[in-house]
Amino acid sequence: MTWEDRLAGCQEAIGVCFDDLEILRHCLTHSSTAPTRLESNERLEFLGDAVLELVVSDYLFRTFPERSEGEMTRIRSAVVSRTTCAEVCVELGLEQFLSLGKGLVRGTGESHIIPSSILAAAIEALIAGIYLDAGYEVVREFIERCLMDRIRLAADTESRNYKHLLQQLAQKRYGETPDYLLLDEQGPDHAKCFEVAARIVDETFPSAWGPSKKEAEQMAAQQALDELLPTTATDDH
């Protein structure tokens, strides 16, 4: 495939036209085919990672005013990841436009396989390229268009599965599963409220109230996640 075909095909796939095609060429050039590493997409990948995180953070802040800092961080972590970036690259069909060394591609034709790390890096580089060539608003629209469904799914999952998230985190960090302590219950039988706190090993986290034991446990798990987040949350990118 000629570079003219690569550049034209990529622009059609992403729905963005570049004024400076040299920027787009750098976005698609892996270090294995670049004359020097500085002429590959590595520097653009660095910038694109930061732009992606900013755009998603901005979207979450504007779209979910009721979500806490901890909730938004967990949603962002689920969306801004190498895995997600690689999936988006494949969904857009961009792998066919990348300039890669032969040793990096296994198989031939439609069955060729490109490492996911390379696909993810290409998307991050492309995000940087759009930002440099067209500005923040254009790259914001591109990212939101590509990730909108994933963001909403992550937000929906986050709102329902605090107990599951806490269990995963507790098993990873402590090698134990959390349990839930019923601390208090108030109100008549037909309208009781329950106070529950999550406990992991010998650490008990702030309690929460709910209209049922199940909902109180979910809220207690959220409280525990908010406490644990500063020392446990990591972004996979």
CATH architecture of the largest domain: Orthogonal Bundle
What is the radius of gyration computed over CA atoms, rounded to a whole number of angstroms?
Answer: 22 Å
> What quaternary form is this?
single chain
Q: In percent, how much strand structure appears in the residues?
A: 5-15%
Sheet of most strands:
4 strands, antiparallel
Supply the helix-strand structural class: alpha+beta
- Roughly what is the average pLDDT, rounded to an integer? 89
Tally of strands: 4
Question: For the terminal residues, how far apart are their CA atoms?
Answer: 30 Å
What is the H/E string?
Answer: HHHHHHHHEEEEH
Number of domains: 2
In short:
This protein is an alpha+beta fold. It has helices at residues 3-14, 21-27, 42-63, 69-79, 82-91, 116-134, 136-160, 162-173, 213-232; strands spanning 179-186, 193-200, 203-204, 208-210.
What does this entry look like structurally?
With 237 residues, this protein is α+β, with helices and mostly antiparallel strands. It folds into two domains: 3-160, Ribonuclease III domain (Ribonuclease iii, N-terminal Endonuclease Domain, Chain A); 162-232, 2-Layer Sandwich (Double Stranded RNA Binding Domain). The protein is 58% helix and 9% strand. Strands 1, 2, 3 and 4 form a four-stranded antiparallel β-sheet that branches. Strand 1 and strand 2 form a beta hairpin. Helix 6 (116-134) crosses helix 7. Residues 231-237 have low confidence and may be disordered.
